[in-house]
Amino acid sequence: MKFEKNILGIGAGYVGGPSMAIIAYKCPTYKVTVVDINPQRIAAWNSDDLPVYEPGLDAVIAATRGKNLFFSADIEAGIRENDIIFVNVNTPIKMFGAGAGMATDLQYWEKTARQILQYSRSSKIVIEKGTFPVKTALAMERILSNNKTVHFDVLSNPEFLSEGTALKDLENPDRVLIGFRETESGIKARDTLVEIYANWVPRERIITSNIWSSELSKLVSNAFLAQRISSINAISAFCEKTDADITEVARIVGMDSRLGNKFLNASVGFGGSCFKKDILSLVYLCRHYNLNEVADYWEGVIKINQYQQERFILNMLNAMFNTITGKKICLFGFAFKANTGDTRESPAIFVARRLLEEQAEIVISDPKALKNARNDLQLEGIAGKVSYIEDPYEAAQGCHAIAVLTEWDIYRDLDFQKIYGTMTKPTFIFDGRNILDHEKLFKIGFNVYPIGKPALVHF
Ligand SMILES: NC(=O)c1ccc[n+]([C@@H]2O[C@H](COP(=O)([O-])OP(=O)(O)OC[C@H]3O[C@@H](n4cnc5c(N)ncnc54)[C@H](O)[C@@H]3O)[C@@H](O)[C@H]2O)c1
Questions:
Q1: What is the dihedral of CA 123, 125, 128, 133, to 10 degrees?
Q2: By alpha-carbon position, which residue is closest to atom 12 of ligand 1?
Q3: Of the listed ranges 144-158, 386-400, 423-437, 441-455, the one predicted with least confidence
Q4: Checking CA distances to 88, which of 105, 148, 160, 459 falls within 20 to 30 Å?
Q5: CATH for 210-459 (3.40.50.2300, 3.40.50.1110, 3.40.50.720, 3.40.50.1820)
Q6: What are the tens digits of pLDDT across the range 180-202?
Q7: Any idea which fold 5-201 has?
Q8: How high is the pLDDT of residue 61?
């Protein structure tokens, strides 16, 4: 079959897999190939055990794989045979040398640019889909301009999907952003990309901008989202000192139509691979341009997040008579949020490390993230008495305390009377997501510690 367009996605991770799959799903006349340097990841995409958990993803893959969606480890052929290339590679925080712990590590991106340069035999549109520091497209153009016979147009098309609702976000995005150069071929490239999205996204939601605004807007969107969480978390600390209730405060504040009610849930803190790294990237860029006050302002969002996680641990310690040595603590949830198996930068990693430092024993429970949890503890060298039990009833047995770290729906509807009966007394529950019925738990016999509201204790 001859396809209308041949599209390549480089990088088959949390963004590359779902976003390329949706293009294939919505555009059956296009052929979409996804490549990755990690052959195990490609093998997993070609199996029944997908490397990424997202509600609805199995069905989309089943409908497209082998028809117009292909996963392959052959990067060279992928680049040669496709003229539209989405770059979905990871852009983690740089952990060495200049900018360590702050700047974006661009080694994966640069390797991709060089591979595109090396293997291209015809003109290509190269699309930055990952989140890159402002002016990365310029660097990409400079590398690609070393091939004098092939023309490249670089576009910025940052992805705004949110893990856990990735498929919904991709199918029905608030906006699709395309940053382009005002040159004849830049405009043509922009129009080609608009045409792809217009297969399912209403035209008025496909917006175009100058390429640097596009790159910056992605960093700023994440910075604003994270800032909302840190803002409400900062106020949750204040509530705990004054007997105000963060849920009431958030509801009242959120009813102001200028503010809106989303992203106002107080919690143990935000995690995920993006918020921290994107804010740090913004902070690093600000410092580079000598905008130190601006950098300090955004760095505050990260500091409050760390403070919130540390506060959670200190509250636990304080509540449990200032010692948790030898006590058994069950973590309900390890994923950084509900409906994903992703644990990158999850507050649960921090909590696990700190509890083990205090010589507690921990039991980790999660419906989708146990494999990643195991890897994280191993990779981070976090040692101690740890067990992994998916069933929450079994996991909580014999424990002194439960800490709710992920807002999975299953935890809301558990039979806590039954759980209480199997736990060590006095029994504590630390609701790091404020998802449980605290009054009910208190009546059962738990000592209940929510975030940003008075604790309910029996002594
Ligand atoms: N995860 C999210 O929710 C999210 C949302 C929006 C944007 N983003 C951005 O999207 C980008 C990708 O994020 P992710 O979460 O999918 O990362 P990921 O680590 O899950 O996936 C990246 C993939 O790229 C592959 N890769 C790296 N270098 C390669 C190369 N040279 N050739 C081929 N494959 C290569 C890796 O093996 C990996 O499988 C990042 O810039 C991130 O900031 C992520």
A1: 60
A2: 90
A3: 144-158
A4: 148
A5: 3.40.50.720
A6: 999 999 999 999 999 999 999 99
A7: Rossmann fold (3.40.50)
A8: 98
CA 99 to chain centre: 22
Q: Is the CB of 273 under 6 A from ligand 1?
A: yes
| Residue 275 CB–ligand 1 contact under 6 Å | no
- What residues are paired with 87 via a beta bridge? 10, 128
Question: CB of 222 closer than 6 A to ligand 1?
Answer: no
- The residue nearest atom 11 of ligand 1, judged by CA position, is 130
Which ligand 1 atom minimizes the distance to the CA of 111? 31
User: Which segments of the chain belong to CATH 3.40.50.720?
Assistant: 5-201, 210-459
Probe target for ligand 1 pocket from 273, 344, 345, 372, with the most ligand atoms within 8 Å of CB: 273
Q: How confident is the model at residue 89 (pLDDT cuts 50, 70, 90)?
A: very high
CA gap 428, 436 in Å, rounded: 13
Q: Residue written as tokens 């509801």? A: 251
**What Cα–Cα distance (Å) separates residue 340 from each residue in 54, 165, 276?**
6, 9, 18
pTM here? 0.96
- CA 195, 197, 200, 203 dihedral sign is negative
CA distance 311 to 234: 11
Helix, strand, or coil (residue 392): helix
